[in-house]
Design brief:
9-stranded mixed sheet, 14 helices, Luciferase, domain 3, alpha/beta, about 500 residues, GMP Synthetase, Chain A, domain 3, 26 strands, Rossmann fold
Length: about 500
């Protein structure tokens, strides 16, 4: 069986980012790997492996082993293959998010010490050299630098090894591709760790991908309907936009698995998409059950996903606040501000993670590396969690998003979730505003479900009053926003996360 062969190959200790496509091509040969329209691309596994080798030949003519290559390419599946080609040549890939500003790209080039900057795949044209084998690489060597695109400070390069990235692919090697022909629709940035490992994982699972270089809600919905795709992976902001684009009026019944990551997925939103997905029909009863929804939890510093929670097929349950079940090889612990382990149910602390995918270092930043990694090898995630029964952990918010209000800790994510239950609110973001008396006060920015409600100043005032009344009813006094600002859109990073620093700057 292909599944067994795939699993055996990916469990070999010498698998690297440079030879993984060769391994997968040996299993899937002429099966379709990817189809893309902009630019046009239609490749089988074997064709992709050949392209990786061709590009590797071009790379070898220009750089030596271990040198960094910045791939400042438009978002495309070819960016993923270019990363494979760089690794095949023994070099280190530095993929750049197309949403980065020019000054951020310049910083990545300088900070990485890149020997080569590739801005078009035409620069990797066939040099007439087709290497038979990838240059030897140890799985513990750095394979790629992923630069974070946080809202503050300059991007930092997260150094991930071949072992870190291949470990992500291994999890989908068990996918029964020969038993059912699954296809996916993906519109994620390849230069972001989520997009990278999702595409790598689908390739490892033998799943055909319809790749959309740009996320346009109508294009995604069209692709699902046309392709009769069975899998869609996105982020919560994408799901919100799909809903606004009329997802409920489209035929999405081919989807058996919805997936989300990068940010907390509201239970109600996940439930609505479960109801739109694949269903079974029981004679005499009609349609029964709902599609599966999977929410992953992870970060670039951990090489991708470290935990997942599943709302199972044909069961109408939500996802809740739990981080999820730890993926194989990963361990969790919850620590207080004094780095003491928390063991009492209900107490809040920072989540620490340990496992095979952790970053080797922040490139050229030993101080940041020291702050991120404990002396005993645990990653400080910066995420606050509440300890639950049987070792479970419940997400409470980002450590930097805690608002210190009059001696209380206000978790922004909790306030946001409450505000988003108000019928007038489509999305909320809460930040802390400095206050001389109380330290900080919570302030909310909201995007309305019906923007026409605030066409006039008086209408806006009525909506704000409605939102504040909702907060008064559902939140403790110290958690209630002192002000609500209505915005057309919330500012976002290239990975669609809300830029809270931009919101804080508006209050300055």
């Amino acid at each position: 069986m292909r599944t067994v062969r795939r699993l055996k190959l990916l469990r070999q200790p010498d698998v690297t980012l440079g030879n993984v496509m060769d391994h997968l091509a040996a299993v899937h040969t002429d099966a379709e790997l990817v189809r893309q329209d902009e630019p046009a691309l239609d490749l089988s596994f074997r064709q992709a492996a050949i392209k990786v080798r061709e590009w590797s030949g071009a790379v070898r003519l220009q750089v030596g082993p271990g040198e960094r290559i910045v791939l400042a390419l438009p978002n495309s599946y070819e960016l993923l293959l270019a990363c494979f080609a760089v690794a095949h040549a023994g070099a280190v890939a530095v993929p750049v998010n197309a949403q980065m500003r020019p000054d951020e790209i310049d910083h990545v080039i300088a900070d990485s010490g890149a020997e080569l900057v590739v801005r078009s795949v035409d620069e990797l044209a066939d040099p007439g050299v087709l290497p038979e084998e990838p240059l030897p690489a140890d799985p513990g060597d750095v394979a790629a630098l992923f630069y974070t695109s946080g809202p503050t400070g300059k991007p930092k390069g997260v150094a991930l090894t071949h072992r870190s990235l291949v470990d992500q692919a291994r999890r989908l090697a068990l996918w029964p591709a020969e038993l059912r022909r699954d296809s996916s629709v993906v519109a994620l940035p390849v230069a972001h760790i989520m997009g990278f490992v999702v595409l790598l994982g689908f390739a490892a699972g033998g799943i055909t991908t319809r790749f959309l270089p740009r996320f346009r809600p109508d294009d995604v919905l069209d692709a699902i309907e046309t392709e009769r795709a069975s899998i869609f992976i996105g982020v919560p902001a994408m799901y919100r936009m799909l809903l606004q684009a009329g997802a409920e009026y489209r035929d999405l019944s081919s989807i058996r698995v919805w997936g989300s990551g990068a940010d907390a997925m509201p239970t109600e939103l996940a439930q609505r998409f479960k109801e739109m997905g694949a269903m079974i029909s029981v004679p005499g009863l009609g349609p029964v059950g709902q599609a599966t929804f999977v929410e992953g939890y992870g970060m670039v510093e951990a090489g991708g996903g470290v935990a997942a929670k599943i709302s199972p097929p044909y069961v109408a349950t939500g996802l809740g606040d739990a981080v999820g079940l730890r993926l194989p090889g990963y361990r969790f612990r919850v620590m207080d501000d004094d780095d003491r382990r928390i063991r009492r149910w209900g107490d809040v602390g920072e989540l620490h993670v340990r496992g095979p995918g952790l970053l080797q270092e922040y490139w050229n930043s030993p101080e940041a590396t020291h702050q991120a990694l404990t002396d005993d090898g645990w990653l400080r995630t910066g995420d606050l969690v509440r300890l639950g029964p049987l070792g479970s952990v419940l997400f409470a918010g980002r450590k930097k998003d805690v608002i210190k209000h009059g001696g209380y800790s206000v978790y922004a994510v909790e306030v946001e979730q409450v505000l988003e239950t108000c019928p007038a609110v489509a999305e909320a973001a809460v930040v802390g505003l400095p206050d001389e008396r109380l330290g900080e006060v919570p302030v909310a920015f909201v995007r309305l479900a019906d923007p026409e409600q605030y066409g006039t100043e008086a209408a806006t005032a009525r909506v704000v009053k409605t939102v504040l009344a909702h907060a008064d009813e559902h939140l403790a006094e110290y958690k209630r926003p002192t002000a609500v600002h209505v915005v057309d859109e919330l500012p976002r990073t290239g990975t669609t996360k809300v830029q809270k620093q931009s919101l804080r700057d508006r209050l300055a």
